[in-house]
Specification:
globular, 4 helices, PA1123-like, alpha+beta
Length: 79
């Protein structure tokens, strides 16, 4: 998700813009990330979920608080 710099009346450096898909992940170590419910909830609370395509599987994930947060391994795939 990217906002126009003009809408805020200021310039925003490209490296200061965090894509939504990366915003909801938090780094645990050099190779692992966790899908943070609290960060997803921030987006849901803003009622912008339809614009950022939050789908039913993610809604189920948000409703299952008894299930631990998802942890994933990150690796660089060279093509």
């Amino acid at each position: 998700m990217r906002f126009s710099e003009d809408s805020f009346g200021m310039d925003v450096a490209d490296d200061g813009i965090i894509p939504t898909s990366e915003f909801v992940w938090a780094q645990l170590s050099d190779t692992t990330m966790t899908l943070k419910r609290e960060l997803i909830q921030l987006l849901l609370d803003q009622n912008i979920d339809d614009r950022i395509n939050i789908t039913e599987p993610l809604r189920v994930y948000m409703s299952k608080r008894e299930v631990p947060e998802i942890v994933a391994l990150r690796s660089l795939v060279r093509g």
